[in-house]
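Subject: Sanity check before I submit

Could someone independently write out the structure tokens for this chain? I want to compare against mine line by line before I put it in a report. The sequence has 310 residues.
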Amino acid sequence: MSTYVTTRRTPTPRTTEGDPFMHLQRLLGAVGGAVMLTAAVLSAPQATAAQDIGQWAPAATAKIHPGTMMYTEGAQCTANFVYTDSAGNVYVGYAAHCAGTGSATDTDGCQAGSLPLGTRVSFNEGGSLLSEGTVLGHGTLVYSSWLTMKSLGTTDANTCAYNDLALVKVDAGDLSKVNPSIPFWGGPTGIDIDGTVAGDRVWTYGNSSLRAGISQLSPHTGISLGDDAADGGWSHPLYTLTPGVPGDSGSAFLSAGGKAIGVLSTLGLAPLPASNNIGDLGKELAFARAHSGISGLQLVNGTEPFDPVL
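---
Independent answer below. Compare away.
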């Protein structure tokens, strides 16, 4: 029997320096986990100016991008992909559980508590257990699959367990800092719709504060364990070297060719210890399009070509 836990961090009392670090429970809420661990949240003021989506910051100097650390009331997660809408607004995604308010064992998004829409989120670099590092920009939580499923009264077990996506709208003043490319690997090049079979390669870029901002430790590659038909295509279990840890929660996963396949949601403790589970991005994005009220919501491809390197 599988056991699941979220990977949020519990914030410590605030000081004049901000939130210097979080307790392990919420930290476990910021990466992905249950016996496969699940993941967590964000937010900030909404941008009012439409973004010319052809004018991204250069990938080499962009401050906000997939893989950037995101902090929500002290809980740290990793940005997955960049999204836009028909009005030109820009969003950065992470796991809905990143904004969770319950314990690390609360993995059912239809039942778990969450911070409200409108919650402020910051984009940071160099975060560690001692400090949140340097703030690079801000955004506002404008969509959470967890809040939406609860509002809709969703009951499908797979949807409740694996639909773990939240969107943070980037502040207008920070739009010039954004690039949609995955660091190290490049891409994404579109959305994967085929799922995985055992042995398929996957690529990811996690940015847990447990690694103290050492970017050389962020790129990972791994293999799929094969999709379980019983999950209805909602999840993809896998192993990576090294596995995702608390703080990696919400990070992007790419399949062959650089296609966006999923978002880190859980870490397996049993029966497959140290495995991870990702929610299917195609299904999560389709759900968001249907229920978020964001018109024309779409994934943005990277400006840099996908290169598997390793």
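---
OP: Matches mine. For the report I'm noting this point. The helical segments are 24-27, 145-152, 157-162, 281-291.
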